[in-house]
Amino acid sequence: MKIINLGSLNIDHVYAVNHFVRPGETLDSHSYALFAGGKGFNQSIALARAGVTVRHAGKTGTDGKWLQKQLQTDGVDITHVETCDTPTGHAVIQVTPSGENAIILHGGANRSIDADFIRRALSDCAAGDCLLLQNEISGMAEAIRLGHKASLRIAFNPAPMTESVHSYPLELVDLFILNETEAEELTGQADPEAIRNAMLKKFPESATVLTLGRRGAIFFNADTLLQQESLKVHAVDTTAAGDTFIGYFLAEWLQRGDPAAALKLGCRAAALCVTRPGAANSIPHINEL
Fold first, then answer.
1. Which domains, from first to last, does the chain contain?
2. Are 41 and 172 spatial neighbours (Cβ–Cβ below 8 Å)?
3. What does pTM read for this prediction?
């Protein structure tokens, strides 16, 4: 069983600030750092560090060759990572002393993904393989349809949540992975129990993982409801916490089929991640857990 992650590859520009910049304000930063990032990149790194085989599919510009090398260094298969003429996608990230972050994202090469590229990326997949998707690249509706046609199990993390997500063929998704904001925008509900009821009504054949920050995470489908508390840690930077959780949850769930154990491992990995600065470099290795 393969995991193919069709996702973004970004360069992150990270600024440490006292507070998020306000309209009309010019704000000094205490420090600046350059990191590899993007939800797709981070989730591939998390999957690899969780000990599973993952193939990344995506695009960078020539300025992003070092992202491809870092994926390889972590053991990610980059057979379907292509270099194009468009500049690599990038993010400008503000991080406050409490570890909260605010992000401005530019798609760049991530927005040059089309149906032909997706077909190439899925050409050597087999029925039962897992297709992991986020929402930082173009071609999402086609990816879901083509993945379903190829009998792949589709895991979808609609981040960032945009209006276009509602037009995707979401009934074909096998597993939704949502934070509270994404879940509220998808369902119109804010309470976890109301979110659960709405998701089961709209997508009765799908499973959902709902991450709740400091309150942990829950997993549910038509037959099961599981909850996992988070670990109490001192947060330094929450930038890649969700991506770390997703990688570790999927690695455990797909290998052993135990969502309770997957929730526990995902929460442990995310807790360790937020004690470190940065994005991909803050994602732990399995032997650290």
1. 3-9+37-89+108-288 (3.40.1190.20)
2. no
3. 0.92
Q: How far is CA 275 from CA 83, 149, 213, 270, 284, in A?
A: 33, 41, 14, 9, 10
**Closest listed residue to residue 243, CA positions, set 273, 276, 209, 288:** 273
Amino acid at 218: I
pLDDT at 92: 92
Tell me whether residue 173 is exposed, middle or buried, using C-beta atoms within 10 angstroms of its C-beta: 0 to 12, 13 to 18, 19 or more: buried
| pLDDT exceeds cutoff 90 at 67 | yes
Q: Residue 163: is its pLDDT beyond 80?
A: yes
Active site residue 243: yes
The confidence score (pLDDT) of residue 238 equals 84
Q: Is residue 45 a contact partner of residue 78, using CB atoms and an 8 Å limit?
A: no
**Taking residues 267-283, what's their average pLDDT?**
90
**For the chain, where are the E strands, in sequence order?**
3-6, 10-16, 31-37, 54-60, 77-83, 89-95, 101-106, 130-133, 153-156, 175-179, 207-211, 217-220, 225-228
CA–CA dist 41, 145 (Å, integer):
22
When pLDDT is averaged across residues 213-231 and rounded to a whole number, the result is: 95
Give me the phi and psi of 208, to 5 degrees please: -135, 140
Q: Which of 77, 129, 174, 243 is catalytic?
A: 243
Handedness of CA 185, 190, 192, 193 (dihedral sign): negative
